[in-house]
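> example.struct
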């Protein structure tokens, strides 16, 4: 059985131009319930940071169109507060100091152990400013955002990671319609290969589990628009 900490999920923006390394990182971090968006350049990173919210920015320094520090300078100047971890082969003291002085929160030199990377990412995401209200209750459901765990009348509601991410997104906007594009963003990474009906399948299975567990909730959908979770009348 995995520990509670291993079930903690977060969304990470990975900025790395080495395709094989990026693919390996995505596979390894996904095993720890992390949703990874991946881009290769400074310009793409700046563009996506305008539209999406991430828990941690995992950033290489040597990029095709500049230094990863350029992203930090640009974003910090605009009040960007998301934790940043630099990931680079430039591991000497002077480079680490420069990265931290420019606004990085942590610095990990290549090569590195995946276990250390995961631990450091979780430490960054645990900062008080990043933690939302941890426990939310609706109907007979109790949802722990920090560990992505659901309980019905104190009993665990077992479900795979994608369904837990769907439930988390709906609980954050409880009693409000969550538009389909927004829900897709919170459940799937940019590079995930997703079939057109994948989201609907996850929602359907989640709805069935909530009904079978008598959660006292209704999961409604408007075809092609989005979904809403509300208390049963």
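> example.seq
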């Amino acid at each position: 059985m995995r520990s509670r900490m291993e079930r903690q999920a977060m969304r990470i923006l990975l900025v790395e131009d080495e395709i094989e390394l990026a693919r390996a990182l995505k596979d390894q971090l996904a095993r720890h319930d992390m949703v990874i968006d991946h881009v290769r350049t400074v310009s793409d990173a700046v563009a996506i940071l305008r539209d999406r919210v991430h828990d941690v920015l995992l950033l290489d320094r040597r990029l095709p169109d500049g230094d990863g520090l350029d992203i930090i300078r640009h974003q910090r100047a605009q009040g960007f507060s998301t934790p940043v971890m630099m990931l680079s082969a430039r591991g000497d003291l002077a480079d680490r100091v420069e990265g931290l002085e420019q606004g990085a929160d942590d610095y990990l030199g290549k090569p590195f152990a995946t276990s250390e990377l995961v631990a450091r990412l979780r430490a960054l995401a645990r900062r008080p400013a990043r933690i939302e209200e941890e426990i939310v209750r609706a109907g007979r459901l109790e949802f722990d955002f920090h560990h992505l765990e659901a309980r019905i009348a104190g009993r665990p509601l077992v479900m795979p990671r994608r369904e837990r991410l769907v439930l988390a997104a709906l609980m954050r906007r409880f009693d409000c319609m969550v538009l389909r594009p927004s829900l897709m963003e919170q459940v799937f990474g940019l590079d995930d290969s997703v079939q057109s009906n994948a989201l609907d399948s996850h929602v359907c299975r989640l709805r069935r589990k909530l009904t079978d567990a008598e959660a006292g909730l209704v999961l409604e959908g408007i075809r092609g628009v989005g979904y809403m979770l509300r208390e049963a009348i």
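> remarks
The radius of gyration is 19 Å.
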